[in-house]
Write a structure and sequence with these properties.
- This protein is α/β, with parallel strands linked by helices.
- It has 20 helices and 18 strands.
- Strand 8 and strand 9 (197-200) form a beta hairpin.
- The protein starts with 15 loop residues before the first strand and ends with a strand.
- InterPro entries: HET, HetReg/Transcr_Mod.
- It comes from Lentithecium fluviatile CBS 122367.
Length: 605
């Protein structure tokens, strides 16, 4: 298929734009246009169009540079009117002059959108096709004379039909669009068109001023629709342009004023205001980013702008709440506090390419890491063996308090995204720096789901809080201590089965687990205390030689199938570990964990 933009390429490294120009044609013929590219600093005078795109279902074809292209119905009617009026001056129309299928080009053009509208000779507001009342409203506004200065002439200014027609004009969907705010505010001159009729912007400004005078004098009872027009979306734009002093406003102020305006893409709720915002040009426009990443970009831009103090802290919290409401994305107060305390150093909000994301389950002896955050998140999720993760999440690296979600997958997506913000703190495999102090709720969740066994639970809760050393309480036949001198085996006390303390409804809201948790901890503490006493006595009776690793005599053997791990991506040799298989169980979740039906973990010894 031919490309209408091939003859008018844009250099995205410089400030260039395309302009469209209607070609003379008969009313019955297809609309034909030429499209050319120019430097923004050296282009012919042009008119920038401000309009509502309309439904994608209603399209008509036009010809651009000899190529047949569909445009939406509202734009087609505008071009048709320009052809009827034989207006062939250059135009800038976003839907045509930007190749909407190229994200990089959209980013580039939207970044300079403020300059495009401020440099235009005029901005043409297209309110759409005429209807039963629009011609009445446009004719009345065009012929109406403003009040004389200094005279209280509050005569009847219109009849009911005229008032209702003007109100309908001021409530058209165009005035609710987010993008029109920048387009109108930055315009040198504004012209309003509806159907075949054209009106100067000043006529609408004079009407609003006169209606305000009538209301202030208490004469609005004699003027139909006065209050309704003064509270219409059109009046909001008129007053904002009249009060604008050309100086940029803080983005927060703009969002509070215009945040309810409509946009098909929620990211445009922010992007459409950057041309008016203080330091707005320093925010990168990128349609590849999600709404949440746009929120974080803008939040950290504001944090950098306002600084960091007591007053600024309160302002930032309110700004974060405002962004959350405007962009309709989750941004709880706890996350706002975290983002305030941890400024982002790179555009992605995560870390640079040399950062190593170590598994958050280092306390299980997992030493895997990834240089990419997405692979790291998938790996961490696999530790749940396809089962739903816990719905309570916390972060031990910062002051983020515990939070509960209705879904465990959502909870851990949030936790893992949050963890990536700690950047360098994920670079170690020790539990002290990889995931922080033990998360006992997570440990209990793994045990309740049979992802760790009773002995692991003991080691993680009342022992060393990690499985990177041989558990002192293992009693299985393949994991015992033996003395080479006298061939005596260590017999540890057997840990009672704890299945009676597991809940089928584990992690459900409203269930009190504290009494049961206390009972389990009591059993585990007693077993560990007994095991340590027996082990201490046994070692003292078999001291036939020198001390070995972990404080054991070198001739005491820990019977486990050891093997050497392969070196990691940084060339650092790992510790020895043995393969431990958990009891077989059914996997109801989302991830396939192997044909054996067993969840396996590498225990470091």
């Amino acid at each position: 298929m031919a490309d209408p933009y091939a003859a008018a390429p844009l250099d995205l490294k410089s400030q260039e734009l395309r302009l469209i120009q209607l070609q003379p044609s008969e009313e019955t013929e297809m609309i034909r246009c030429s499209l050319r590219s120019y430097s923004l600093q050296n282009c012919p005078p042009y008119t920038a169009l401000s309009y509502c795109w309309g439904s994608i279902r209603d399209c008509d074809d036009i010809e651009i540079n000899g190529v047949r292209c569909p445009v939406r119905e509202n734009l087609w009617f505008f071009l048709h009117q320009m052809r009827l009026q034989r207006d062939y001056n250059p135009l800038w129309i976003d839907a045509i002059c930007i190749n909407q299928s190229k994200v990089r080009e959209r980013n580039h053009q939207v970044q300079i959108m403020g300059q495009i509208y401020s440099r235009a000779r005029s901005v043409f507001i297209w309110l759409g096709k005429a209807d039963d009342t629009s011609d009445i409203a446009m004719e009345k506004l065009r012929k109406r004379k403003p009040f004389e200065i200094g005279k209280s002439n509050f005569r009847k200014i219109w009849n009911v039909q005229q008032a209702q027609s003007i109100l309908a004009l001021c409530e058209r969907s165009y005035w609710q669009r987010m993008w029109i705010i920048q387009e109108v505010m930055l315009a040198k001159e504004v012209v309003i068109g509806c159907g075949s009729m054209i009106l100067s912007w000043q006529k609408l400004v004079q009407l609003i001023k006169n209606l305000q005078m009538i209301v202030d004098r208490g004469r609005d009872i004699h003027t139909p629709c006065a209050h309704a027009i003064l509270t219409s979306p059109a009046t909001t734009i008129v007053k904002a342009k009249s009060e604008r002093d050309r100086s940029p406003r803080p983005l927060g102020m703009l969002l509070r004023t215009f945040g309810e305006h409509e946009s098909t893409d929620f990211r445009d709720k922010v992007y459409a205001l950057l041309g008016l915002a203080k330091n707005g040009s320093s925010v990168e426009i990128n349609y590849d980013k999600s709404e949440k990443n746009v929120l974080l970009d803008v939040f950290h831009h504001e944090r950098k702008r306002v600084g960091w103090g007591v007053k600024e802290k309160d302002d930032l919290i309110r700004f974060g709440q405002l962004l959350r409401n405007v962009l309709k994305v989750p941004f709880p107060e706890t996350e706002i506090y975290f983002e305030m305390a941890n400024p982002r150093t790179v555009d992605s909000g995560i870390t640079n390419k040399r950062t190593a994301y170590h598994c958050l389950f280092g306390f299980l002896g997992c030493s895997y890491f990834f240089p990419a955050g997405d692979k790291w998140r998938r790996h961490c999720m696999e530790h749940f063996g396809g089962m739903e993760p816990p719905r309570w999440v916390r972060c031990s690296q910062c002051e983020l308090p515990e939070q509960r979600f209705d879904d465990g997958w959502e909870a851990w997506n949030y936790k893992l995204y949050h963890a990536t913000q700690h950047q360098g703190l994920l670079q170690s495999t020790s539990w002290k720096s990889c995931g922080g102090p033990p998360d006992f709720y997570l440990i209990e969740h793994l045990w309740q789901r049979r992802l760790i066994d009773d002995l692991d639970l003991e080691e993680l809760t009342v022992g060393n809080h990690c499985l990177t050393m041989p558990p002192l309480t293992r009693t299985r036949a393949s994991q015992v201590e033996r003395c080479e001198k006298c061939s005596a085996d260590l017999e540890r006390p057997v840990l009672p089965c704890l299945d009676e303390y597991r809940y089928e409804l584990w992690d459900k809201e409203g269930v009190d687990y504290d009494p049961t948790r206390s009972s389990v901890i009591k059993v585990l503490k007693k077993h560990r205390s007994d095991s340590e006493e027996i082990y201490k006595n046994w070692v003292s009776l078999h001291r036939h030689g020198s001390q070995g690793s972990f404080g054991r005599p070198s001739h005491l053997i820990y019977l486990s199938n050891l093997r050497q791990a392969s070196q990691d991506n940084f060339g650092i040799p790992q510790a020895k570990y043995g393969r431990h298989e958990y009891p077989q169980y059914e996997v109801p979740g989302k991830h396939d964990i192997g044909s054996s039906g067993r969840y396996q973990r590498d225990d470091f010894v």
